[in-house]
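Trying the structure run again after the queue cleared.
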Amino acid sequence: MKESEELKNELRRIVRELLLLLSLILIIVAVCLVKEYFDKHYTHFNAERTALMERIFDITIDDNVKLKRYSDESILIAIDQRLELETDDYERFIAENVNAALKLDESRRDGEIIYKYVNYRTDMKITELEKGGYLIALHHWE
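Done. Tokens:
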């Protein structure tokens, strides 16, 4: 009888340790997922992130451009990246800050002007803001 009790206690101890280990693994996975999300979705841009935006979207950022939001919905090899920025003058932004050749897309939607990058799988949608200025949404995919 005593051996049976010892065996039960030992099994309970093993189950508790396994549950503790499983909890620790779940916490680590959750932290990794949160980090991954914040690495791919952000609204604060330091010099390193700004340089990354310039590379991805072939643009130059200066004082006339305010970066608003970046998201990366890429899955495996399918790239799907988006950047929103604001500027007071979208024509000046295109002339001075876009390093790629653009082609005006004639299929406009109400209130939007759409450009396609000539040599990239990237498009640019320009929307006038109610408060003045323009929201430029860049979308890069492969």
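The chain has a mean pLDDT of 89. Worth checking whether this holds up in the mutant runs.
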